[in-house]
Amino acid sequence: MNCEQKFEGLRSEPSTRRRVLFVDHAAVLGGAELSLLDLATAYRQTSQVLLFADGPFRERLEAAGVPVVVNLAPEAALSVRTSDRFGALKVFPALGWMAHRVATLACDFELVHANSQKAFVAAALARLIGGPPVVWHLRDILTARHFSGLNRRLAVTLANRCAARVLVNSRATGQAFVAAGGRPDLVTLVYNGLPVEVFDRLDPAQSLAIRHELGVGEAPLVGVFSRLSYWKGQHVLLEAARQLPNVHVLLVGEALFGEVEYTAQLKTLAALPELAGRVHWVGFRSDVPALMAACDIVAHTSTEPEPFGRVIVEGQLARRPVVATAAGASTELIEDGVTGCLVPPGDAQALASAIEKLLADSGAAQALAERGAAHARATFSLEALLATFDQALQSVPN
Ligand code: UDP
Asked: What parts of the chain have a pLDDT lower than 50?
């Protein structure tokens, strides 16, 4: 199903939606961008997206009929890491330039929706020079692991002063914002939503064809579906697989933010003799639902608290037993032993045991998967996301 079809039913009520300038500093296809794709597609008749980089996200927005403007930001502003201690100071002139671009474009809109931290800082500065109200869609856990102290203080101070709302994608994300000094009264919980019907239309023949292509035969297949990054923990699954001699691993995703060393480390691990022929690298794919359905188990292996974890919900919607690490929002998405399994982060032994247990009792594993699917359908549909999102934006005064 393409985006056109996906939103056919939702397009009948666009006139009630607010006029929003959505802003993102990135144009890669990460979870934050895929979620914005859904929101911006629903808002495409009244709204526009401003990107500070060019890439596949811009192509996907255009294919969905969303008006997009690309203003390439100075390289320094895009490449500096949020964990860089003095990052905000290094890129201040570039942020000023971005703020000016937001303020200029935002004249035609009722409010600005900032989809990333850099976008938020630019939008908040634009607000200070007379731009429209700003909603920060916070999709990161503001901890020292990902954000330097200075960056956290800057973002939280600007949020407390300039944001009309801070939409958080999980309770874990909201709690970290408040723990960093953020005003609790600004926070509104907006869980991500996924297109449930895409998963309902999965064709078992396609899953069989995928297994055939991979050459896994009847062997158990465990998939991990994330960008390659140390904290996403793909290495933990490879370590677990060393203890499970019959299990094959499907690695889906690529490094989106230049994690060259980690990719090399994974390649070295996958080349170990005991894993020979059992690790299947397929890079970035746009058919994640079908790939998940081809697996026996979907693994989520993040070693740090996950702000949301779309892949967990996708695994549930694909009716596969999901094993996830118990940190951050995973504990909001999975009830351990009921709608999935939770294991401690970074613990290859615990992950191997959980996989072994699920493979040993396919009846119990399928029951777990069915309960996970029912929970995900009821809680994380695109309709539920849009209803909460619309309401949150409607509550922002002009
Ligand atoms: N994804 C994808 N192709 C890939 C790997 C991942 O489309 O090859 C998607 C995945 O299906 C999910 C998103 O990327 O929708 C990742 O979102 P998540 O919240 O799990 O992690 P994030 O990237 O936001 O940290």
From this structure: 1-14
